[in-house]
Amino acid sequence: MPLPELPPLPALTRAEGELIDRYLDVVDLLGRINPAQNEDTYRGLRAAQALVRAAAELRDALALMHGRGESELHGDTLARALRVLDGERRTARVVLPPDCVR
Predict the structure, then answer these.
(1) Nearest 5°: CA angle at 19, between 15 and 23?
(2) Residues 6+ apart with CB under 8 A from 81
(3) pLDDT tens per residue, range 43-76
(4) How far is CA 68 from the centre of its chain?
(5) How far is it, in rounded angstroms, from Cα 27 to Cα 89?
(6) Which of 95, 75, 94, 72 lies closest to 83 in space, CA to CA?
(7) Residues 6+ away with beta carbon under 8 Å from 61
(8) I need a labelling partner for 71 at 20 to 30 A (CA). Which of 37, 53, 77, 101 fits?
(9) Distance from C-alpha of 91 to C-alpha of 83, rounded to nearest angstrom
(10) Which residues contact 78 (CB under 8 A, 6 or more apart)?
């Protein structure tokens, strides 16, 4: 059975694409570190170590945009790109899971 076709990625500048990619890298690492979602300290440690590099790359992507005079983020467009790239599932790993114990 073929996979369903994804909606097209909205038109982004190269810098916006880099920002989205670096943001999702950070989100993925935070999801691996999240103590409410993770039972493995070694995996969390490795993700925390990688987070330093990923945060610097995210900073650099934003600095490049700012340096080029791109002072405004187009939230609707970037949100569509995040949704196409599975951002809702990926960011859900960063938040606390629902409280199951009463």
Answers:
(1) 170
(2) 9, 10, 12, 16, 17, 20, 87
(3) 999 999 999 999 999 999 999 999 999 889 999 9
(4) 23
(5) 10
(6) 75
(7) 15, 18, 19, 21, 22
(8) 53
(9) 10
(10) 12, 16, 19, 20
| pTM of structure | 0.86
Distance, in Å, from the CA atom of 20 to the CA atom of 16, rounded to the nearest integer, reads 6
Give dist(CA 59, CA 9) in Å, integer. 23
Amino acid found at 89 = R
Yes or no: say if 88 and 35 are a contact pair by the CB < 8 Å rule.
no
Choose among 102, 21, 10: nearest CA to 61. Answer: 21
